[in-house]
Design brief:
Largest sheet: 7 strands, parallel
CATH class: Alpha Beta
Strand content: 15-25%
Number of strands: 10
Strand order of the largest sheet: 1-10-9-6-2-3-5
Number of domains: 1
Order of helices and strands: EHEHEEHEHEEHEHEHEH
Distance between the termini: 27 Å
Radius of gyration: 18 Å
Number of helices: 8
Bound molecules: fructose -6-phosphate
Helix content: 25-40%
CATH architecture: 3-Layer(aba) Sandwich
Amino acid sequence: MQIHIVPDADAGARVVADLFERAVRDAGDQGATLGLATGSSPVPTYAELIRRHREEGLSFARSRAYLLDEYIGLPADHEQSYHRFIRENFVDHIDLDSAQVHSPDGAAADPAAEAVRYDQAIQQAGGVDVQILGIGSNGHIGFNEPGSSLVSRTRVVGLTPQTISDNSRYFTSADEVPVRAISQGVGTILESRRIVLTASGEHKAEAIAQMVEGAVSARWPATMLQMHPDVVVVIDEAAASRLELADYYRHLHTLETEQSSTAAR
Ligand code: F6R
């Protein structure tokens, strides 16, 4: 894992946006397959990518996008659906074709069959080039809650009381938060060619410490990212505050920056 400890969310957003921009440019005419997360963590990155689209001509016209998850019971146009969230916070503001924004159908009559269809659709699209992830304070990625199989596929999952309470800030009350979702599995997420996880705040510090330095375990599903060869973690000082080896990661980062500025000369 490459760990970037950044001063604030805006600095983190620039690092993540650089990786997305590179994926889009590297894909050329074929177009990149972008893996998108919802929640608050990726919003500054989406804002930075929107800015680059408007001010620097970064084009997503040939790209396609796959969301990580969707609440069961909410149709795509529901105010709190993840499909709507990603439209309002990102894709409605860039030139990505809206027909190329894919998510599990939370209103499907058979959610289990819908989960299988969605998993296969990602594979048929050739897999995700770059996946952005947030992390739950309990170590979930997507909605793979503690106890999830570390090789799980896209499926119907039940949300923990902690996640329901964390997400209730978007609803009028905790009673309105759906209790089930369709989520890409840990195994599905791990098939992305590159993964960028971003987090900020003290409430994420324990999950980040487990993910980077803890034993791989279903108790903290994000620990499975240790088994992926290309993961970039972009966190602020508060989220990094429980990392035992934080100084070492800072040192590595300085070395890398020096190396790339030497190479650029
Ligand atoms: C969102 C998702 C979740 C969030 C996580 C962190 O699509 O799958 O795993 O990334 O719950 O949420 P925030 O960023 O709101 O703290």
